[in-house]
Amino acid sequence: MSALVAASVLVAGAVGAVIRYLLSKAYPVRPGHLPGGILVVNVVGSGLAGAVIGLAERAAVSDDVRLVLVTGFCGGLTTFSTWCVETIELADGGRWRAAILNVLVTLALGIGAALGLYLLVR
Amino acid sequence: MPPSLAVFVGGLAGTGLRLALDTVLPHADDGFPWSTLIANLVGTFALGWLAGGLWTRPAIPPWLKAGIGSGLIGSFTTLSAVMGAVAILDREEATALAALYLGVSLVAGLALAAAGLKLGSAIAHRPMPTEVTDDGATL
C-alpha cells in the first residue's frame, strides 16, 4: 500500500464520518422512531461496499480503489458502535419494540443491500 | 472548533486505526475477520462507557463529543465491513462461518454496549438514563 493510497483511505473515511454525523443530526433519535440517520448510512454504506467488492472481483475497479471506497469511505460512513449503543439505550428506556426493530431492520436491509448488489454487479 | 471539523479529524484517526488493525491482522477471503470484530467490540464498549458516563456531564463541549463519538469511534467501527464479509463468505460457501461472524458481532456488540453504559454510568455516579434526551450529536 502506497502512502498516497493510505492517505486517500483516511480522507475518504473522514468524509464518510462527516456525512454520517450530519445525517444523524438531521434525523436524530426521537421517541416513536428508529434512529433514522444511522440506519440510512449503514444500509447505503453496506450496499456500496457490496457493489464495489463485486466490481473489484471482476477487475472493473482496482484493489487500491476498492481499499479507498470500502475500507475508507464505507467504513467511515457506516458505524457499528452507535448502532449497538442506540439499541441498548432504546431498550433501557423501555422501548423494546423499537430496539428489536432497530436490530432486525438494520440487519435485513444491510445484508440485503450488500449481498444483493454484490451478486448483481460481480 | 466546529463539530463537523472535529468529526473530520476524529474520522481520519479512527479510519487510520482500523486500517492499521486490518494490516496487522489480515484475513483470507474464507477466514474469520478478526480485525473488524475487535475494532467493533472495542469501539462499542468505549462509546457505551462514554455515553453512559463522562458525556452526561455538562462540562464536556459538544465538539469533543462529536469528534470522539461520531468521528474517532464511529469511523473506527464499521457495519459495511461486516456486511461485505458476509457477502464474500457467502461466495466462498462458508455460510456457517458468516452466520457465526454475524451472531458473535451482534450478541457481543449489544452485551458490550450495555456493559459500557452501565459501567460508565456507575463511574459518573448517576442513574442510567431512562430516556434518550440528546439530539443525536453525542452518538
Automatic annotation (TrEMBL), chain A:
Q: Which InterPro entries match?
A: FluC
| Coiled-coil intervals | none
Question: What regulates this protein's activity?
Answer: Na(+) is not transported, but it plays an essential structural role and its presence is essential for fluoride channel function.
One Gene Ontology term of the molecular function aspect: metal ion binding
Keyword field? Cell membrane, Ion channel, Ion transport, Membrane, Metal-binding, Sodium, Transmembrane, Transmembrane helix, Transport
Question: Where found, per UniProt?
Answer: Cell membrane
Q: How does it sit in the membrane?
A: Multi-pass membrane protein
Q: Which GO terms describe its cellular component?
A: plasma membrane
Q: Name one GO biological process term.
A: cellular detoxification of fluoride
Q: Which NCBIfam families does the record cross-reference, listed alphabetically?
A: crcB
Which PANTHER family does the record cross-reference, listed alphabetically? Answer: FLUORIDE EXPORT PROTEIN 1-RELATED
What's this chain's function? Fluoride-specific ion channel. Important for reducing fluoride concentration in the cell, thus reducing its toxicity.
State the similarity comment. Answer: Belongs to the fluoride channel Fluc/FEX (TC 1.A.43) family.
Quote the protein name from its UniProt record: Fluoride-specific ion channel FluC
Q: Which gene encodes it?
A: crcB
From TrEMBL, chain B:
Q: What is the regulation of this protein's activity?
A: Na(+) is not transported, but it plays an essential structural role and its presence is essential for fluoride channel function.
Q: Which domain of life is it from?
A: Bacteria
Q: Does the keyword Metal-binding apply?
A: yes
Membrane topology note: Multi-pass membrane protein
Which residues are recorded as binding Na(+)?
74, 77
Localization in the cell: Cell membrane
Q: Which residue windows are transmembrane per the record?
A: 36-56, 68-89, 95-117
Can you quote a single GO CC term?
A: plasma membrane
Q: From the UniProt record, list the reaction(s) this protein catalyses.
A: fluoride(in) = fluoride(out)
What keywords tag this UniProt record? Cell membrane, Ion channel, Ion transport, Membrane, Metal-binding, Sodium, Transmembrane, Transmembrane helix, Transport
> Which BP terms from GO are recorded?
cellular detoxification of fluoride
What does the record give under GO molecular function? Answer: fluoride channel activity; metal ion binding
Q: Which InterPro entries match?
A: FluC
Ion transport as UniProt keyword: yes
Function, as annotated, reads: Fluoride-specific ion channel. Important for reducing fluoride concentration in the cell, thus reducing its toxicity.
Q: Which family does it belong to?
A: Belongs to the fluoride channel Fluc/FEX (TC 1.A.43) family.
Name under which the protein is recorded: Fluoride-specific ion channel FluC
Gene name tied to this protein: fluC
